[in-house]
Amino acid sequence: MVKLSIRGRVLLLLLSGVLLTLMAVGGLAFYALYTTKTTMMAQGDAMGQLLAESLGGKVEGEAKENLQEMTRIKAQQLSRI
Hints:
mainly alpha, 0% strand, 93% helix
Protein backbone atom coordinates (compact mmCIF):
# COMPACT_ATOMS: atom_id res chain seq x y z
CA MET A 1 0.00 0.00 0.00
CA VAL A 2 1.29 3.43 -0.94
CA LYS A 3 1.57 5.84 1.92
CA LEU A 4 0.14 9.26 1.11
CA SER A 5 1.32 12.42 2.70
CA ILE A 6 -1.10 14.52 4.70
CA ARG A 7 -1.40 16.87 1.75
CA GLY A 8 -2.26 13.93 -0.56
CA ARG A 9 -4.83 12.58 1.91
CA VAL A 10 -6.52 15.97 2.22
CA LEU A 11 -6.57 16.34 -1.55
CA LEU A 12 -8.02 12.83 -1.98
CA LEU A 13 -10.67 13.54 0.66
CA LEU A 14 -11.53 16.86 -0.97
CA LEU A 15 -11.81 15.34 -4.45
CA SER A 16 -13.95 12.49 -3.11
CA GLY A 17 -16.26 14.99 -1.45
CA VAL A 18 -16.54 17.04 -4.63
CA LEU A 19 -17.27 13.92 -6.69
CA LEU A 20 -20.00 12.76 -4.29
CA THR A 21 -21.51 16.23 -4.24
CA LEU A 22 -21.48 16.40 -8.04
CA MET A 23 -23.17 13.01 -8.28
CA ALA A 24 -25.83 14.05 -5.75
CA VAL A 25 -26.53 17.32 -7.57
CA GLY A 26 -26.72 15.47 -10.90
CA GLY A 27 -29.19 12.98 -9.42
CA LEU A 28 -31.32 15.80 -8.05
CA ALA A 29 -31.26 17.54 -11.43
CA PHE A 30 -32.47 14.41 -13.23
CA TYR A 31 -35.18 13.91 -10.60
CA ALA A 32 -36.30 17.54 -11.02
CA LEU A 33 -36.42 17.15 -14.81
CA TYR A 34 -38.48 13.97 -14.53
CA THR A 35 -40.87 15.54 -12.03
CA THR A 36 -41.24 18.67 -14.16
CA LYS A 37 -41.92 16.57 -17.25
CA THR A 38 -44.63 14.50 -15.58
CA THR A 39 -46.22 17.60 -14.03
CA MET A 40 -46.27 19.44 -17.36
CA MET A 41 -47.75 16.41 -19.13
CA ALA A 42 -50.50 16.16 -16.51
CA GLN A 43 -51.24 19.88 -16.78
CA GLY A 44 -51.27 19.67 -20.58
CA ASP A 45 -53.71 16.77 -20.47
CA ALA A 46 -55.96 18.66 -18.05
CA MET A 47 -55.86 21.81 -20.18
CA GLY A 48 -56.62 19.80 -23.32
CA GLN A 49 -59.58 18.14 -21.66
CA LEU A 50 -60.88 21.48 -20.38
CA LEU A 51 -60.49 23.02 -23.83
CA ALA A 52 -62.27 20.08 -25.45
CA GLU A 53 -65.18 20.41 -23.02
CA SER A 54 -65.34 24.17 -23.56
CA LEU A 55 -65.24 23.91 -27.34
CA GLY A 56 -67.67 21.01 -27.29
CA GLY A 57 -70.26 23.16 -25.53
CA LYS A 58 -69.66 26.05 -27.89
CA VAL A 59 -69.87 23.87 -30.99
CA GLU A 60 -73.05 22.27 -29.66
CA GLY A 61 -74.61 25.70 -29.15
CA GLU A 62 -73.60 26.82 -32.64
CA ALA A 63 -75.01 23.61 -34.13
CA LYS A 64 -78.34 24.23 -32.38
CA GLU A 65 -78.42 27.79 -33.68
CA ASN A 66 -77.64 26.61 -37.22
CA LEU A 67 -80.39 23.97 -37.06
CA GLN A 68 -82.88 26.54 -35.81
CA GLU A 69 -81.93 28.91 -38.62
CA MET A 70 -82.22 26.14 -41.22
CA THR A 71 -85.61 25.13 -39.80
CA ARG A 72 -86.80 28.74 -39.95
CA ILE A 73 -85.65 29.08 -43.56
CA LYS A 74 -87.35 25.81 -44.55
CA ALA A 75 -90.55 26.92 -42.82
CA GLN A 76 -90.48 30.20 -44.78
CA GLN A 77 -89.93 28.32 -48.02
CA LEU A 78 -92.81 25.95 -47.27
CA SER A 79 -95.12 28.81 -46.34
CA ARG A 80 -94.47 30.41 -49.76
CA ILE A 81 -95.62 27.28 -51.57
